[in-house]
Amino acid sequence: MSHLEKMKTDGISLRAVHSFLIVIAALVSAILLYATFHSSATFERLSDATDEFIEMQEGTRQLLDASDYLTDQVQLFAIDGEREYLDNYFTEAYETRRREAAIELLSKNPEYESARRKLQDAMDSSVALMDIEYYAMKLVIEAKGYTDYPELLRDVALTPEDAALSPDAKIHLAQVTLVGREYNFLKEQIRADMRSSVTELESITHTAQQQSEQDMKTELTVVRVTIVIQAVGIMFMIWLTARLGIHPVLQAVDKIRDDSPIPVIGANEFRYLARTYNKMYAVYKKSIEHLNYKASHDELTKVYNRAGYDLLLSGIDPKSTFLLLFDADHFKDINDTYGHETGDKVLQKIAETIRHNFRSDDYVCRVGGDEFVVFMVHADLQQNRLIRLKIRQINDELANTEDGLPPISISAGIAHGSEVTEESSLFECADKALYRAKSTGRKGYAFYSALK
């Protein structure tokens, strides 16, 4: 048999498919995670480039602001002659030093070297402007007769002609110098170099932003494609899971409810379970068909008797079955008080009440005088709460005396086949649980799992 034919017969392994899907899901998730982090990093670069441009632009403007501030202070000093303006000028030039700070800011990033050179040209023009300003300040100092002034101005020497001028003429000359052609030319040169520097910054930042935007578009495309692939993968996983597992299970449940063999379809593992179940089902049905109703059923209560119990025990799957052992509380008192005929009716009521509170798939047996067993099949340990509700409902119905029978209650011991190693010990485990239930008060129940 070829591999393809074998696959058609046995089906695809759900374990292999599950492992494959896990690998694919992990791979797609890793790609998506990487793309997301990469997009975040690109966005941060774009944001950083913008922030850096704003910072650099602000720095370059600081140089112009500082230059204009120096001009304002020296012109005010030439007009009013107040020492305050002179002090403000030198504080800015040699303490605050905003112009130098702007140059240092652009020097931090080699990418801004061309913009820094333009800014340096503006700085050089500003320094050249200071020579004119120093001369104008010296004229005002000489005119006002100040003796206490910055040491730098002591080295500034007036021309013989200017030194010979009157105080008013010196002040007038200082004012004219600060608005003269050479002075204004240098001021305009500073502004031109500033504009060139800002233009360079804008060009560099624009290029960086364009590159970052292009990178982000590419990465977002990758993210979108990955999301589409992931969505398609999820739909495929849902379809494959339904095809190999859910659909076969639902069909099997319907067949089990109809008391029929289940179809051998779906994943390899489920097909194996279906074949095994069908074999057990065939054996079980054959055994049931050979049972004589009277031989397997209790004549009084019409439920299975001890012989039926033994046969059922050998045919069920204990790993998916609860055994519930019921015992009527103080049943002897009813026989003694009301007689055996009433006692028989009470037993019939107990059997019928138990039977209609369980599914048609479950089996009710009378294994003793007032002892009953229920095989609750196709059940797992998660159904403990349902069992508790059933027991309470049974006791509520048995306490009802509208049918003219005295009230009665039952106690129950419950054990699951997955808790025992041998089928024969299942009854013993349930009996131990029943003993616990009766020892703690009647009309109760106990699970064998709670005794461990």
What features would you describe in this structure?
This protein has two domains: 3-222, no CATH class; 292-451, 2-Layer Sandwich (Alpha-Beta Plaits), CATH 3.30.70. Helices cover 70% and strands 6% of the residues. It contains 16 helices and five strands. It has a five-stranded mixed sheet, with helices on both faces. Strand 4 (410-416), helix 16 (426-439) and strand 5 (445-447) form a beta-alpha-beta unit. Helix 2 runs antiparallel to helix 9, helix 4 runs antiparallel to helix 5 and helix 5 (113-144) packs antiparallel against helix 8.
Task: Give the helix/strand layout.
Elements: H1 3-10, H2 14-80, H3 83-96, H4 98-107, H5 113-144, H6 151-154, H7 160-163, H8 167-177, H9 181-257, H10 268-289, H11 293-296, H12 306-315, E1 322-328, H13 331-338, H14 340-356, E2 363-366, E3 371-376, H15 384-398, E4 410-416, H16 426-439, E5 445-447
Parallel strand pairs: 4-5
Antiparallel strand pairs: 1-3, 1-4, 2-3
Helix pairs in contact: 2-3, 2-4, 2-5, 2-9, 4-5, 5-8, 5-9, 13-14
